[in-house]
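Incident review: delayed structure delivery

Summary: a single-chain prediction request sat in the queue longer than the usual turnaround. Root cause was a stuck worker, restarted by the on-call engineer. No data loss occurred. The affected request and its eventual output are reproduced below so the record is complete for anyone auditing the incident later.

Affected input:
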Amino acid sequence: QTGISLGGFNETVLRAPPETGKLVFTGAAVFRQQPLFHFAEPLLLLGKRHLGKGLFITLCSAFLSLPLGIHSFHIINNNKYPLPQPHTKFTKVCFELEHSDFFLPILGLVKIPEKSYHTFYVWTQRLGYVPMALPRLRDALKNGDIVIIINPDKPFTDIERKQILSYVDGGGRVILMDSSLNKNSTANQILRVFDMKIGMKTSEISFFYDPSGRKIPNTKQSETVEGGEPVLFTKNKDPILSLKRKGQGLIVVMADSMVFSDRMFGSTGVVPTPEQLKLYELEFWMLKDLVKVP
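Output delivered after worker restart:
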């Protein structure tokens, strides 16, 4: 026999003969080692009449202490290990979802490439920008250095138009892209505030030209932009991308949004063709050189 302590009690261990290689414990020692018994022991001491109350108090204490403990550790963690402060300003590109009609694979996979702008969205990171998709226009205007609206098909209120105008006046950058395929377009509800509009004239083209005269492939059908400063043209000198400076900011209007869709860009995992490389360069030029976020 050997005396040892188990669970706070001195119990007896009976050693079996060496040839069996077994240990035989007393029944009391085995019973007192059950975790369930240790948990329930305080409740059993209350007696049968108060067992329900004791169990209720125990469960309530557990449920109340858990969130309190989590919150306390969160405060301690923030105090002991604070996040580092940013030392370099980064450009935030906010894609507005409230009025826009385009797809990002946030909750599902891309099914219609013409509707998806996933690659365009991801490629903003190649400029060191931080893209984000926000469900409300006001949130995009509040957080974004650049706000992108794609194929808008929901009406803008007078308040929202004033908010966009105020955002641009204060130095914000807005990129509005629309398509001739957007039959319910509300783009001109914004553009009339800037004395611009996307015209009904449709150019049947397979290329347009950047300011250097280089051919850029497009979707063979584009509307035109009226007003502002023309930047990109069709072969017939019809502007399909123009900008308008207002206050400290500006608005860029692209009348052929399909150029930046996954149908033209391909997916993020493809090896780009020479034509796709030109489109990528067009996006980089528009976001970095044309917009010029200070």
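Verification: The first strand starts at residue 2 and ends at 6.
Action items: add queue-age alerting; document worker restart procedure.
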